[in-house]
């Protein structure tokens, strides 16, 4: 089986041609939202369809982290190492407290109206929580609950440490994955219905400007722009048709890591942040890279 679609010779700087894609765990409904704890060395991820969240480690294998999870999707760590999760069925963004024994609602409404279905989330170095809010959890039965939408747009939000929820853009049709550049000066957000990645400048006050199309995610196979991460050199990794697409900082697509199932999201992990853990439909995969990802948990 072909493992890669190489579009640019620089792809060899990212991943070895001999790298092997292996299965970490399988038998799930629809996996999403992988995050790696950089000091305790475990992976957490969601199964949206089955409304479970799991934890996996090399030593202990797979265990239940939380069930039911309100069909949680994207996850991230805040600056204190607590898991922040987006829930499709409840239209909420929540935070796991006290090792997950308590789940606190961080955001559920905007301007008095229920959020759509919070999807993916990232926390910056100022402990501000940024998340996308498309309609997927309201229009797909296996990913949420079929119901009408209160808001007449799909937005991207910033939740400040003081609890204020700010709509930073409503310009995208179905905003999905998001990530920061290494210096946090640029916020990249993809639009699954684009299928495009947009680049926003993060201003000093936390508001965004710009938002032009940075690149289009195209290719053969199943998949749309979904999970997205940055490595330490500013390359953008993004799920798309066929697997995980790798872009240079200049927006050139270097190639695609081909996945045998529809890939949904991924994260960098392992002891050196060089392993790519990929959620894809019923399974979780991993593959070694030649680059280093940004840790998802940076202690204040």
Can you lay out the helices and strands and say which pair or pack?
Blueprint lengths: L3 E3 L15 E5 L4 E6 L6 E5 L4 E6 L3 E6 L5 E6 L5 E5 L4 E6 L4 E6 L1 E2 L2 E2 L6 E3 L5 E5 L2 H4 L15 E5 L5 E5 L5 E6 L5 E6 L4 E7 L5 E9 L11 E3 L5 E5 L2 E5 L5 E6 L4 E7 L5 E6 L2 E6 L12
Antiparallel strand pairs: 1-24, 2-27, 3-4, 4-5, 5-6, 7-8, 8-9, 9-10, 11-12, 13-14, 14-15, 15-16, 17-18, 18-19, 19-20, 21-22, 22-23, 23-24, 25-26, 26-27
How is this structure best described in words?
The model has no long low-confidence stretch (mean pLDDT 96). The longest helix is centred in the middle third of the chain and has 4 residues, at 136-139. This protein is mostly beta strands and 300 residues long. The protein has one helix at 136-139, and strands at 4-6, 22-26, 31-36, 43-47, 52-57, 61-66, 72-77, 83-87, 92-97, 102-107, 109-110, 113-114, 121-123, 129-133, 155-159, 165-169, 175-180, 186-191, 196-202, 208-216, 228-230, 236-240, 243-247, 253-258, 263-269, 275-280, 283-288. The protein has one helix and 27 strands. The protein has one domain: Neuraminidase (6 Propeller), CATH 2.120.10. The chain is globular. It has a five-stranded antiparallel beta sheet with strand order 1-24-23-22-21, with no helix packed on it. It has a four-stranded antiparallel beta sheet with strand order 2-27-26-25, with no helix packed on it. Helix content is 1%, strand content 47%. The N and C termini lie far apart (44 Å).
């Amino acid at each position: 089986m072909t493992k890669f679609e190489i579009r640019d010779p620089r792809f060899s700087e990212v991943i070895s041609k001999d790298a092997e894609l292996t299965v970490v765990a399988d038998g799930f409904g629809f996996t999403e939202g992988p995050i790696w704890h950089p000091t305790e060395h475990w992976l957490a991820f969601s199964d949206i369809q089955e409304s479970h969240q799991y934890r996996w480690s090399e030593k202990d294998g797979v265990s239940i982290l939380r069930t039911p999870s309100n069909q949680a999707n994207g996850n991230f760590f805040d600056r204190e190492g607590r898991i922040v999760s987006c829930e499709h069925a409840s239209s909420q963004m929540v935070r796991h407290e006290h090792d997950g024994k308590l789940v606190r609602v961080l955001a559920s409404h905007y301007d008095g109206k229920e959020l759509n279905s919070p999807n993916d989330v990232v926390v910056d170095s100022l402990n501000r929580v940024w998340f996308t809010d498309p309609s997927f959890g309201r229009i797909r039965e296996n990913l949420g609950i079929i119901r009408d939408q209160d808001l007449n747009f799909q937005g991207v939000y910033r939740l400040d440490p003081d609890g204020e929820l700010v709509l930073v853009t409503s310009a995208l049709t179905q905003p999905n994955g998001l990530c920061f550049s290494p210096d946090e000066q640029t916020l990249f957000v993809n639009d699954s219905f684009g299928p495009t990645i947009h680049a926003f400048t993060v201003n000093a006050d936390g508001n965004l400007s710009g938002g032009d199309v940075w690149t289009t995610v195209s290719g053969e196979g199943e998949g749309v722009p979904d999970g997205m991460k940055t490595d330490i050199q500013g390359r953008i990794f993004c799920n798309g048709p066929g697997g995980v697409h790798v872009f240079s900082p200049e927006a050139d697509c270097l190639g695609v890591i081909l996945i045998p199932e529809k890939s949904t999201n991924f994260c960098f992990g392992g002891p050196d942040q060089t392993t790519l853990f990929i959620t894809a439909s019923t399974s979780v995969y991993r593959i070694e890279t030649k680059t280093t990802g940004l840790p998802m948990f940076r202690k204040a």
